[in-house]
Amino acid sequence: MHKGKTIVKKGKYKIIDCKVCGVKHLYPLPTSEYLSEFYQKKYYNLIKKGDRAPEIRKQIAGGGEEAEAELYWLRHTLYEDIRYVLERYLYKGKKYLLDIGCGCGNFMKYMKNVNWKAIGVELSQKCGRIIKESGLVIYNMTLEKFITTHSEYKFKFDAVTLLNVLEHIPKPVDFLKLTKMLLKPYTGILCICVPNDFSKLQMYAAKKLNKNLWWVAIPDHVNYFDFKSLQKILVSLNFEILYYTTDFPMEIFLLFGEDYVNNTKVGSICHKKRINFELSIPDELRREIYHKLAEVGVGRSILIFGKRKD
Length: 310
Prior knowledge:
This protein has helices spanning 32-49, 54-60, 65-75, 78-89, 106-113, 125-133, 143-149, 172-180, 200-208, 227-236, 251-256, 264-280, 283-295, and strands spanning 4-10, 13-18, 24-27, 95-100, 116-121, 137-139, 159-163, 189-195, 223-224, 239-245, 301-308. By secondary structure, the protein is of the alpha/beta class. Strands 6-5-4-7-8-11-10 form a 7-stranded mixed β-sheet, with helices on both faces. Strands 1-2-3-9 form a 4-stranded antiparallel β-sheet, with no helix packed on it. The longest helix is centred in the first third of the chain and has 18 residues, at 32-49. It is globular. The relative contact order is 0.13.
């Protein structure tokens, strides 16, 4: 039974700070059947409108200059940082990666280009077609079906990535238990990236500017993690926390007076400023700044790495 303080209520749903799960999440939890129908019939309409996953929208729309600029930034920041941390803790040589919820395969392409063998699991048929056209290996199925039908991949991978996936999963601990089965014992590394929602800075900006909690996305964002809750889950599953960091705290723009919440044009300008900042400083300095911000729980995202201890 889930129970905890109600943080916000929208329609038939509310978000509770669940004392049972140790995570803020949607309540009641949507069923797997409901979410499956939502993603099949509604989610990609939201993407096309610009309400979700802008990087996927740009790729589905056929790429172009804007999409290439976005990918250039990701390759030189997030993707490069993930590779940097993984290779810091893994042996040298050919390594195997599974990207769960791989979208259009951009991270897989990057890792393949830096001498990793990468495959992906993705529900979206549209994204699957884009990946297959690029010659990458993609399994269009759920994680459960992937494990059941492809047992040859159990304990196979040096690294498994979940980039903006876990916030969508109704039972994240059970999902991580399945994910762990795919990692090599004692050495395999799990990399998770999720939004850092309800952070102190985010909540302060909402209160200061008298805004609704704009980051709440119902019903697709089921979980709302923070650094402590995510680390606690990984430790309970016998992972050693290797490293954690964050990225640019976008709420700063709101406190500067740039209202990107209610104005998409302002949002685009703020995003470009953030990109310019991150590409203008050395990688080492950017990593140091963002790791320090993560230590106080500030930053738009959580990026965390855990190694199997068993």
